[in-house]
Design brief:
344 residues; alpha+beta; Ribosomal Protein S8, Chain: A, domain 1; 7-stranded mixed beta sheet; 4-stranded mixed beta sheet; 14 strands; 44% helix
């Protein structure tokens, strides 16, 4: 471990992952959950996604202390021969439920050309792109979405109805990295809002309103009021779609129901997640190779003019972390070490 800029440390990835696992074990989680959760948290920090890195260990700790999450539940996977795979997380954290359902999702997608993984009754705290990358590693395209707590007002309103409701998409490519995007339909991720609150820095303009409905850049005021969707009515419509597709459609809670269940405990949201997978070979048939070529031609047309593909910054950060060590905020790192008793 070494110092970088003021307030930051550089930690080897293996050491960081060990510290994360130790902190999660300290919370009393079963080992299968520890391993699955540590993988996505370490990936977030490795790829310089600060809102979904080691900060999420603290989110998990709050959820455990709230007494709502099951620390030991084994997910139940159900498949009936159709293109739909269902996983009941049984009110545990979500990463293990996804990992348990992934092999069957890949299998049914190969068989039918398309597949759906419906995860229910999970406490979701992680980014979606680690899941997307695990699906594209099978040579499949993927689309994932999930609600959260009701923190976001609809366009034209000022009272929370939607969650931050992220959407993620992945396209398999030749080489080590796929095309991936993952973004909240809110103007800022909730984790980023919390990081602004912790550091006492203002939010960017147009991220939210206070309790009276007035625009504000104060993260505390916005947390008491409502966040905004990105892109006005367009982002608001996408957020509504996520509520329907990953909530009502799969028989799980909307963001409003998740927040009601939380009852002020400050736990991670409890709801469902919908992941759709697509097999380019089955869908494209004899033209699937040409389809991959067309995709690469489009990517080349983007990068040739100096534009970045989505996820390129994250992949560059990943290479840097693997080469130089993972950059972590010193204060957050100390908090996590205290949870782990300072033992990897």
């Amino acid at each position: 471990m070494s110092a970088t800029t003021a307030g930051a440390l550089r930690v080897p990835l293996d050491e960081l992952a060990g510290r994360i696992r130790a902190a999660l074990r300290g919370l009393g989680l079963a080992e299968a959950h520890v391993q699955a959760m540590a993988r996505v948290i370490a990936a977030g920090q490795r790829d310089a996604c600060q809102s979904h890195g080691i900060y999420r260990v603290l989110t998990c700790a709050r959820t455990v202390r709230a007494g709502k999450v099951d620390l030991h539940a084994e997910p139940v996977v159900e498949a009936d021969g159709s293109a739909v795979v269902r996983v009941d997380a049984r009110h545990a954290f979500s990463p293990l439920a996804f990992e348990r359902g992934l092999p069957m999702l890949a299998e049914v997608t190969r068989r039918h050309g398309v597949g759906a993984l419906a995860i229910r009754h999970c406490f979701h705290f992680s980014a979606l792109w680690p899941e997307i990358e695990m699906i594209t590693a099978h040579g499949l395209a993927a689309l994932a979405m999930t609600p959260s707590h009701a923190w976001v007002a609809p366009a034209g309103g000022h009272k929370p109805v939607f969650g931050t409701n992220p959407i993620a998409f992945g396209w398999p490519r030749p080489g080590p990295t796929p095309l991936v995007f993952d973004f909240a339909t809110s103007a800022i991720a909730r984790g980023d809002l919390e990081l602004h609150r912790r550091t006492g820095t203002p939010l960017p303009p147009d991220c939210g309103v206070d309790a009276a409905g007035h625009p504000s850049t104060d993260p505390v005021a916005v947390a008491s009021g409502a966040m905004r969707a990105f892109g006005g009515h367009k982002g608001s419509a996408l957020a509504m779609m996520v509520e329907l597709m990953a909530g009502a459609l799969i028989g799980d809670w909307t963001s409003r129901e998740s927040l009601d269940f939380d009852a002020g405990a400050g736990a991670a949201p409890c709801h469902g997640e919908l992941i759709l997978a697509f097999d380019p070979v089955r869908l494209g048939g004899a033209d699937s190779v040409d389809g991959q070529r067309r995709a690469e031609d489009m990517f080349d047309a983007i990068t040739a003019q100096g534009a970045r593909l989505p996820s390129q910054r994250r992949f560059e950060a990943r290479e840097r972390s693997l080469r130089e060590g993972v950059t972590v905020p010193a204060g957050l790192y100390r908090e996590m070490l205290a949870m782990a008793g300072g033992v990897a």
